[in-house]
Amino acid sequence: MSWVAHDVEPYVIQKHLGRRIAIVPLLIGSYAPDMATKWVVYGVSLFGVSLKAAHPAQFHRGFPGVGFTHSLTFGVVVAGLIYVVWRSRIWALSFMVGQWAHALTDSLDSVGTMLLFPWTHLFSVGAWAYAGQTGRYTDAGAYFSGLGFAWDGVWLVWGILSWRVLTRAYFRETVAPADPFWRKAGQYVPETALLAIYRISFFYGACRWVAWLIWAHLVRSFAFDFSWGGPKWVPAVRSQDLNASSCGCPSCCSASPKLALSLAVAVASRMRRR
After folding, report:
1. What's the N-to-C CA distance of the chain in angstroms?
2. Of 80, 136, 192, 193, which has the fewest beta carbons less than 10 angstroms from its beta carbon?
3. For residues 148 and 4, what is the distance between their CA atoms, to the nearest angstrom?
4. 117-130, pLDDT tens digit by residue?
5. What is the tally of structural domains in the chain?
6. Distance of alpha carbon 45 from alpha carbon 7, whole angstroms
């Protein structure tokens, strides 16, 4: 999983796609896979009731579980629903691009993502350790001690190099005209507030990257380990662990990817005809 890239990626994408993309659904898509799932991975207490997945990695990325939210198929299906309900091509496309960016980024860790759901195979590059099952703070320490935090840093630097995307002039000339949301919102709040809303995710991500890095190495003294798949000191869950527990019969292995591809083609064709 990524801790900061999901905050910053949309601004880099915005810079390169300009008026062809809308930042609000792009951000919603970037956050969507983890919106209602990550808290259950780490565990949360509400009104004296504790909620925590018995098998966090399986719940978060696998099936049975909510791993389908990290698939490319999920982005296509939700984008299709957005288009059907609101008839907004740019919102549908922007959500899908944001969600795909999240799914592809998370495929870089040791668990990976079911990109072609309903094919339940997890695709993993394995660059850094997935340690969500250890709890929020150990997971943070591990992430900010390995290649994960470096990956976030790449996006943060790329975002800083694209600094013009955060200016008032860019917001007025590119962001606001592309999405009616800003015109409607401008009827109730001043432009300064709209600009703050537009920028907030970028600065939240940047501050979070610095704060967690300081906490992990100045407050808690976790050891850096930039080895592939590391840090080795944390018990990582790996894609082969979850893939081994899924159905491997020939019929499922052959039918599931075909079904996923057929569903994606059908939704895309539907959007084009409309």
Report:
1. 35
2. 192
3. 9
4. 999 999 999 999 99
5. 1
6. 25
